[in-house]
Amino acid sequence: MALRARALYDFNSENPGEISVQENEIISLHSQQDIDGWLEGSNSKGERGLVPASYVEMIRNDTATSHNNSTSGDAYQGSRYANIPSGGFDASYKPNNQVENFSKAPAPAFPTFSAPAQHQQQQHNYQASQGSDDDWDDDWDDSSTVADEPGVVSGGFRDFEGNGPSTHRISTSSMARGGNAQQAKSSATVSRNLNRFSTFVKSGGEAFVLGEASGFVKDGDKICVTMGQYGPEWQENPYPFACTIDDPTKQTKFKGMKSYIAYKLTPSHTQNQVSRRYKHFDWLYARLVEKFPVISVPHIPEKQATGRFEEDFISKRRKGLIWWMNHMTSHPVLARCDVFQHFLNCTDEKAWKQGKRKAERDEMVGANFFLTISTPAAPLDLQEVESKTDGFKVFTKKMDDSTLQVNATLNEFARKQIAGFKKEYQKVGQSFKSLSQAFEIDQQTYSVGLNQAIAYTGDAYEAIGDYFAEQPRHDVDPVMDLLALYQGHLANYPDIIHVQKGALTKVKESQKHVEEGKMEGPQADSIRERCNIISFATMAEIQHFHHIRVRDFKSQMQHYLREQIGFFQKITGKLEDALQMYDKA
After folding, report:
1. More exposed terminus of the chain, fewer Cβ within 10 Å: N or C?
2. Parallel/antiparallel/unpaired status of strands 3-7 and 231-234
3. Quick one: DSSP state of residue 155?
4. Where does the SH3 domain start and stop, copy by copy (predicted)?
5. What is the pLDDT of residues 462-496, one digit of tens each?
6. DSSP track, 464-503
7. CA-wise closest residue to 187 among 214, 216, 156, 208
8. Helix 349-360 / helix 338-345 crossing angle, nearest 10 deg
């Protein structure tokens, strides 16, 4: 029997030996064994070559074929402003990671046919890599375990209402109409996704919709979705706060054998300063990605194997962490999460270990995460939800394309300013100064003022050239940092949308089973109710994304234009000074 697979995403070949495929295109495979994450096959056009294994799912009647769906931990380091000499401009123009189109799953590196480098970890496939400066080998981590409180799970939310540690046993069976556990079990007659690497499966969305989630939920674990002016939204954090990241300092341990950079974090709601390393951010990010399958956790700046102690790299990483922290503290759910609060506030070594172990054993992840969501009584119109989800998918795709275009345009613009514009203005300035030197040969007393004015004009143009070289770090650089952060968000949304679409598919299947007499109405209703919970959470997350997007881009564009205005005013001032020199000549 010929092996066939269906493309889950669009893939455009960029290297010899690869073939392009479109989403849902059927591919004939020549072997089901992947080679370092790549499969060999032929597309519908008859072209033969390689496609990433993580981009396709096998079409088989038995169990799904597994394949590697992990991303490479090594990030390609490209130049932010291409073809710019390493010296002569601000250190912040050093390497910056590029970002692939968000609609693609991560393509693995292939040893012979150089595959596109991937620079964003997908939200639900994240694995904490083991970089040399990021190993948990210091006194803040060991193999000790912590005895959990009976019936209490960690990783929830701080109870701002003071309700105490009351705990409730919740299962999807009790959420079904009539509370019949057997009804929830029998809902498994809805077909399962054979691709066990599907995001809908790995996130726990499928298990939750099919009624297989069960766990203890504390009052502080509850995540509330409310109906706002524009639809579902996360309940606001009653105690909003911010957090600064300052004073990156190189520190050592093991008598100087191990070096690392520590950052000082100061949350506004406690004013207690804590010291954190990059590996602590990396660990926290992994925990959050695992816990929140339908929340876009912002990506942290990527690892770098070399040059970690160079001043420009430290400065750029700090800027990235500041952007990351701002998005964390402004998210109503992420900001209140216990593991995040533990990260921000814990200063005691023993308490840090205990909190870390509890977070790593958090039961409210995967399918159980959806048990913690509290929604309004009135259900959503699932047809409207599907329409909005499809619209958001189109929007994010277009936004991703646009951010890539803006990023490339600004990159080229900055490159021209740093190299081209500076060089051209300096050439003009040098030509004026040469003219002045020629006039000085005349040695006429009445020409001295003119000679000085022309020489000053030459100096002014050389200074303007330096202005152009320095300007991108004030206006272009912050915009590109913002784009990099949002490209990370956009890379998360295909997985979030996939969970939502998977839940809607189960609802449609259950309705069909009811019509065919294969399922009782209450069973289908319970599936619909659980899909409703996922829908509320997804719609709330989409609403939050739009809110912060408007806030961030408005603020950043205002900053960019102010810097541009100030820049040209400075140039104008320099030219006006040169003009006044001729009045004195």
Report:
1. N
2. unpaired
3. S
4. 1-61
5. 999 999 999 999 999 999 999 999 999 999 999 99
6. HHHHHHHGGGTTHHHHHHHHHHHHHHHHHHHHHHHHHHHH
7. 208
8. 160
Q: Is residue 562 part of an annotated ligand binding site?
A: no
What is the per-residue pLDDT across 76-92, written as a single tens digit (0 to 9) for each? 334 466 545 444 434 33
Secondary structure of 288-351 as H, E, C letters: HHHHCCCCCCCCCCCCCCCCCCCHHHHHHHHHHHHHHHHHHHCCCCHHHEHHHHHHHHCCCHHH
Ranges assigned E (strand) in 135-213? 167-171
The answer to whether residue 187 scores a pLDDT higher than 80 is no
How far is residue 76's CA from residue 54's CA, in Å, rounded to a whole number? 20
Strands 243-253 vs 258-267: parallel, antiparallel or unpaired: antiparallel
User: What does the domain layout of the chain look like in residue ranges?
Assistant: 4-59, 243-374, 382-584
Question: What integer is the mean pLDDT of 503-513?
Answer: 92
In angstroms, what CA-CA distances link 540 with 103, 226, 229? 21, 8, 12
Bridge-based pairing state of the strands 214-218 and 274-277:
unpaired
User: H or E stretch including 233?
Assistant: strand 231-234
How far is CA 553 from each of CA 482, 483, 543, 548, rounded to the nearest angstrom? 8, 9, 16, 8
Tell me the backbone φ, ψ of residue 299, rounded to 5 degrees.
-75, 140
User: Per DSSP, which regions of 268-339 are E strands?
Assistant: 274-277
Q: In the CATH scheme, what is the code of domain 4-59?
A: 2.30.30.40
Look at residue 22 and give its three-state secondary structure.
Answer: coil
Residue pair 186/518 in contact (Cβ under 8 Å)? The answer is no
Are the C-beta atoms of residues 104 and 55 closer than 8 Å to each other? yes
pLDDT tens digits, one per residue of 269-288 = 999 999 999 999 999 999 99
For domain 382-584, give the CATH superfamily: Arfaptin homology (AH) domain/BAR domain (1.20.1270.60)
For the chain, helix (H) and strand (E) counts, in that order, are 13, 13
The label of the residue with tokens 């080679």 reads 35
Q: In DSSP terms, which residues pair with 265 in a beta bridge?
A: 245, 274
Topology adopted by domain 243-374: PX Domain (3.30.1520)
Count, residues in the chain: 585
Contacts (Cβ under 8 Å, ≥6 apart) of 411 = 80, 81, 82, 480
Three-state secondary structure call for residue 35 = strand
Interatomic CA distance for residues 7 and 52, integer angstroms: 10
pTM for the model stands at 0.71
Q: Does 530 carry a binding-site annotation? A: no
CA gap 133, 278 in Å, rounded? 8
Name residue, tokens 């420009």. 312
